[in-house]
Amino acid sequence: MKKTLLTLLIFLGISPAFLRADEGMWLLSLVKQYNIETMHLLGLQLSADDIYSETDPSLKDAIVWFENGCTGEIVSADGLLLTNHHCGYGDITDHSTVEHDYLTNGFWAATRKDELPNANATVSILVRMENVTDKVLAAIKGLDGQARETTAAKTMKEISTKATEGTVYNADVREMFRGSEYYLFVFETFKDIRLVGAPPSAIGKFGGDTDNWMWPRHTGDFSMFRIYCGKDNKPAEYSADNVPYHPKKFLKISLKGYSKNDFAMIVGFPGRTNRYLSSYAINLTLKETYPALVTMWEEKLSIMKKYMDADPKIRIQLAEEYASVANVWKLFKGQIGFGISDEMITKKQKQEVAFTNWVNGLSNDSLKNVYGKVLPALKKKYDEFHPNNLPTIYGNNLLSLAFAGFASRFTDLYNVLTTEPIDVAKKDELISKLKNNTVDQFVKYFAPVDQEVMVAYLNAFSKGVPADKQGTFITDITAAYKAVTPEESFKKYAADVFAKSIFVSADKVNAFLAKPSSKILDKDPGYLFAKKVMAYTAQFPTAMSLGGAVKADNRTYLQGLRLMNSNKPYYPDANSTIRLTYGKISDYNPRDAVHYNYYSTLTGVMQKEDPTNEEFIVPKKLRDLYEKKDFGQYGFNGDVPTCFLTDNDITGGNSGSPVMNGNGELLGLAFDGNSEAMTGDFEFDPILKRTISVDIRYVMFIIDKYAGAQRLIDEMTFVK
Ligand code: ARG
């Protein structure tokens, strides 16, 4: 559609489906084809090539995949990088000790030499992306089921290998629309990423888990890193001789602010959505799977908290895991909330009725046949799988116990040790891999929590799995550890496992790996537990995993939906590939008689202050700056804007993503969604779904006025 016609339609107040500003996580290279005209009408000043270009510097060169789970953006010619505090959280805790508690007090590198290297940090920058659907579909023509999956995987691997031959790049082919389309992504991945600065948690995590997923929000959720590389500006392993990376492009910082309805866009790496699922899948997930997980995680969190509150060292050691469990716990709890899951299921059912009506009206018999069968087929598979769902959930959960998951990784070694003649090369290879795993496993491992959680999870299993599906799993334990209650037997059992298993101690595992013998594993109660859990879950087909038997039906259903709405462009579900969402600065009305403003201020931080609650402590220096109104160039209307709302379409993985104005300048960093739209990963609700971001003026105010890190301010480019 042409720009003039679009303008006319907007003028007349008619907005065709695809003109809706807010829904959609668009593939970056397709923005030119699908979105750019609408974006221009809404206020974008840049060209499509300014956003994505394979030849000239474009936004994609400044927006990075951070540690394969978050997004970050480069903000200086010397590779300075911004992401969320909750994204840098693991790195910040890694550097924290009770004596140097950067988590609590913050950290600011005084000079470049003080910037701290991180063992696990990586930054990937997209070099190019390409639609390779034809190649993959040609290879899998006529195949279905597992054969299709296997051949597709092999072809995808071949394409990515070929794409990087003779380069320093790495690549991945990702499927879209559940295997209807395939795209190649080529990256340059940097491994020497150093921590430059982080505010204290009282700013970076202000409001804690209480405010998490909520608006109004007052969190300074940012941290700062720098990309280092070899002298040739290419990725290099950590070395003291490495130098700051000079990017093709970096983002300018806007101090101009925004007004309601101003254009706003976000580019980042959203992790996972499931927008095109059937009601059957959602029903099982929201009514059964999530409630089970929420209850178990609640117990785990309270066990962790008990130990964290008792010992500052353990508080730092477990902080990262605690935050990530608490985050998903609150998300899932919100999704299953009163009435919310029913509403979501009803929406999907309505969509299915519309789909069935469309199919019935089709005149083409072969299409009618294909699409007419798909929903009944899905229903049948979910009905058949349903009795296996809880056993699978509770069983897998037992394997999520740290020691059990770790022990299960020794299965291959066990098999090599018990197969004559022993394959020595294979054995050595496995041992060296397991030695590395052992280092990772024990960095933050704390056995007492694992042991108590084991009891809690066994208890949950015995209560949550229908008796006729438990097999002898529980009765074996209660028979062996006779006690008055099942829970008492679980306690005795867990005590036994933790006293005798090698898998709860790095020293014991290392001693085993120095002289591995299958006899030790045969007697190890931790290994036997893992083996038993695996044997238990193996009885139940995992058909409902999206990679399993329902995948082809989901693909067909989605193809049908796209055909049914053939004038509406579809975007693929999020899958950690780079996407763009555009929309506007936006307030909202969450409930009857309630209106939420589109931004919050430092005054709100002061209003929330509660010195008796660790989540709402305000650092003295911040209060002083507030009282003196010492806001520098970052103030607005006698205050500092802290967080703001847009109607952009994001999900987990977008954390840290730049929110940009029509000139591609940085307005803030996206870091959360709102509690009223927790089911957003299943369906986008334009009325209720908002993106919560930290205002870049608050970020800069903290770096400049609170931390006094002038050298960093000097490095960035401000637009006033
Ligand atoms: N809800 C945010 C997200 O999923 C993460 C916020 C982390 N903060 C916290 N208090 N746990 O992206």
Largest sheet: 11 strands, antiparallel
The radius of gyration computed from the alpha-carbon positions, rounded to a whole number of angstroms, is: 27 Å
User: Strand pairing plus helix content: what structural class?
Assistant: alpha+beta
The end-to-end span amounts to 36 Å
Mean pLDDT: 95
**Number of helices, counting only DSSP H or I runs of 4 residues or more:** 28
Strand content: 5-15%
Shape estimate: globular
**CATH fold descriptor of the largest domain:** Thrombin, subunit H
Tally of distinct domains: 3
The total strand number stands at: 21
Q: Could you list some keywords that capture this structure?
A:
720 residues; alpha+beta; Thrombin, subunit H; eight-stranded antiparallel β-sheet; 28 helices; 47% helix; globular; binds arginine
